[in-house]
Amino acid sequence: MSDSAIVGKVDEFGRALISIVLRSANEDASQSIEVWIDTGFNGDLVLPQQVIEDLELRPSGTLKAVLADGSEVALRRYTCTIAWFEHQRELEVVANEGEYPLLGVGLLLGRDLQVSYRTGAISIS
């Protein structure tokens, strides 16, 4: 793969974090955000509702999901563009009421994720 690596860090709480740039569908607004890599989430991206409102993302429907505790919920979906390995990629994100954006396995497929809890280094290539 000719794309360069995305690097990040493990914070003092053990969270694997990287920064990504998101843009609204109309591309008027963009925002760099720090996301928590969540390998237990098989989707692409979960964003707090406040980030979705700040970027004025376009709604695209709802999705039924099963949470870690086994409960089923309906989550709102929105469309945005992410700068991902030197390319612009349009994707649907899921809204939540939490405060942490989560990057899931959907964006990691076909990539190598290396996390060192010894050095605190993260690399996605």
Summary keywords:
1 helix, globular, 125 residues, six-stranded mixed barrel, mainly beta, 10 strands
Radius of gyration: 14 Å
Q: What is the number of helical segments per DSSP (H or I, 4+ residues)?
A: 1
The strands making up the biggest β-sheet line up spatially as 2-3-8-4-7-6
Mean pLDDT: 91
Q: How much of the sequence is in beta strands?
A: over 45%
Largest sheet: 6 strands, mixed, barrel
The structure class reads mainly beta
Q: Could you list the spans in which at least 5 consecutive residues all have pLDDT below 50?
A: none
Shape: globular
Oligomer: single chain
The count of strands amounts to: 10
Elements, N to C (H/E): EEEEHEEEEEE
The separation of the N and C termini measures 8 Å
Helix content: under 10%
What does this structure look like?
- The protein has one helix and ten strands; from the N terminus they run E-E-E-E-H-E-E-E-E-E-E.
- It has a six-stranded mixed β-barrel with strand order 2-3-8-4-7-6.
- Helix content is 6%, strand content 54%.
- The chain has 125 residues and is mainly β.
- A hairpin with a 5-residue loop joins strand 1 (6-10) and strand 2 (16-24).
Short description:
The chain is mostly beta strands and 125 residues long. Helices cover 6% and strands 54% of the residues. The protein is built from one helix and ten strands.
Secondary-structure topology with pairs:
Blueprint: E1 6-10, E2 16-24, E3 30-37, E4 45-48, H1 49-55, E5 58-66, E6 72-84, E7 87-96, E8 102-103, E9 113-115, E10 121-124
Parallel strand pairs: 3-8, 4-7
Antiparallel strand pairs: 1-2, 1-10, 2-3, 2-6, 4-8, 5-6, 6-7, 9-10
